[in-house]
Amino acid sequence: MNAMTAPPSSKKEIVDVGFAHRELVARLSPGGRYIDAQTDVDSPWVPFGDNAAIKHLAFDVRQGIFSNILWVKSPGTIGTHLHRGTIVMVCLEGSVRYLEYDWVASPGGLILEVPGESHTLVTEHPEGVKLFGWMQGPIDFFDENGKFVDTSDVWWFINHYETYCRENNIPINPKLYL
């Protein structure tokens, strides 16, 4: 069995692949897009408590999916939370761990979380942590006694972003909505 390799190409131009449903895609798809996450051009840092901020990157209300960068600015904790959907995160800067596990994520590390698990996120890094996340479904937050506090889902994150934009006279970016 031969291993698949990338098809050879030296042609640096758009190639017509002849997709049969191109017109439907053009009419119905929101299309691909680029979100500049390095600057505040496409999305500002929105405060998330006293020591954290979120840069919202995408909202998909059809599937209950949202994407953002969570920045815990110095050593700190994001309280215990229960995931109702799948979470995929990449550590961009700093380091982070969950009290419930024995590993520490460092830059480039991939964190996978499945529905039904609860976690308490902690960073002890002097510069905190930045995590890129692609999340599906609601996240339930609990206080230190295990009492339910709030649910954050795609609608909560949209409200978080849009409220901040309105309060700070920042235009709401339609590129963030899939």
UniProtKB/TrEMBL annotation:
Domain of life where this protein originates: Bacteria
Gene3D superfamilies reported in the protein's UniProt record: Jelly Rolls (2.60.120.10)
InterPro entries: RmlC-like_jellyroll, RmlC_Cupin_sf
The name this protein goes by in its record: tRNA modification GTPase
Annotated source species: Novosphingobium fuchskuhlense
